[in-house]
Amino acid sequence: MMHSKILSFFCIFFYGHTLCSFTGTIGVIGTGYVGLTTACLAEWNYPVLCFDCDEQKIMNIQKGVLPIYEPGLEELITKNLSLGRLQCTTRFEELVDRASIIFITVGTPLNQLTQDIDLSAIESVARDLSTHIKEYKIIVIKSTVPIGTAAWLEKFLCENGVSRAHFDIVSNPEFLREGSALEDFFEAKRIVIGTQSKKALNLMRDLYGPLLPHTTFLVTDNITAESIKYASNAFLTLKVSFINEFATLCDQTGANINDIAYALSLDTRIGPLKPGPGFGGSCFPKDTQALLNIGRTHNVDLLTVHAALRANEQRKQVAFKKLQKLFDNNLTDKVVAILGLSFKAGTDDIRNSPSIDLIESLLKHQVYIKAYDPKAMEHMKKLFPMVTYCATLYEAVAGSDALVIMTEWDEFKKINTETIVRTGNQPLILDMRYMLTAGNA
Ligand SMILES: NC(=O)c1ccc[n+]([C@@H]2O[C@H](COP(=O)([O-])OP(=O)(O)OC[C@H]3O[C@@H](n4cnc5c(N)ncnc54)[C@H](O)[C@@H]3O)[C@@H](O)[C@H]2O)c1
Question: Is any ligand 1 atom within 6 A of the Cβ of residue 180?
Fold first, then answer.
């Protein structure tokens, strides 16, 4: 279903392909979720060259083995590798030599000690760029970076010997969601371009030519483009935290949170809302934290953003608290099946997944945990080797006292409750994604 949807998008883009007027090679630095999706620009017949500081990752990608799971990505990457439109290199200088537009898509995680964004990957790329740029390049910052990073990079390059005539910097934040990255990228609702340079702007417009008939192409300055990404993610966390908090209230009042979410979503000013176990992933938690820090630096207390984060911390405890209540505060030696480990469906990404919080709390209470996830078990095994990982959801459920749905994978929607009752100890079902027809389980 997902694949046919993606293929139909690409039919549009093959048609749009005739609109491509950019001629040159695209460089991509950092081959994670965003970098590999960006590398699919090769679909438009652009030559793309990827680099990553992790040589093993590059060697694997060359063989068609991707470091991540994202629907449809492996097919597109292997196809473009075999057509020679997509290439990889372990030599940074080769990327700089060959590419005229260089996308920076490296990670910008949160430093757990300082709670500031760790910009070491950006700094390392900046150092390498300063050594190798010898002629005009457009450097596109696609990573999510603190406001002012483009200005910092410009200053850094100039101070480190790169002629100002040899580069322009474009801030081009990425809005893709894991699980639907290709659709989001190639069906982008908006392309935000922050730059001071007309030349860079024209080239970026050419590059994104196939999308222009279907998207809003917003041109602004660098700090505004950087801010748009933070504003966007912060606003989404407000929405998620709001509906999650309301779900907690519904647990007490007995109102149906799915009906409430649906009714609200019919108001176009509000848009879709979906309750869940709390937001996770590599972006929302760190981007909201980064925005709070930015606010603090400018003496602006971002109260709503602060509340969204705080509400999320509380919400991530709800699954455990509900289990405790269901078992009269006696969880010791109980068997709990956790269905879903990734922070959302469609990805193997477990960064900040609410399942991690649940596993930690359950382990502290001597609960025996069985887990199943269609894509994320290998990652979770590294964090929690003591959990029993099962080949199917019914294997996880067999013999369990409770099962908790933590991720909205499609296969969980089709759970056969009769089979579950037969295979388990009449397990209690805790549906933190509100997917089962029973409603507020
Ligand atoms: N994942 C998302 O859904 C998403 C969406 C929008 C924006 N973003 C932003 O995009 C950026 C990348 O996110 P991601 O999820 O793709 O990260 P990721 O962790 O999946 O990938 C980052 C890649 O960068 C590589 N890298 C690190 N330092 C490097 C260096 N010095 N030189 C070359 N490569 C280096 C890593 O090896 C890794 O392969 C982040 O700033 C993130 O906030 C992510």
Answer: no
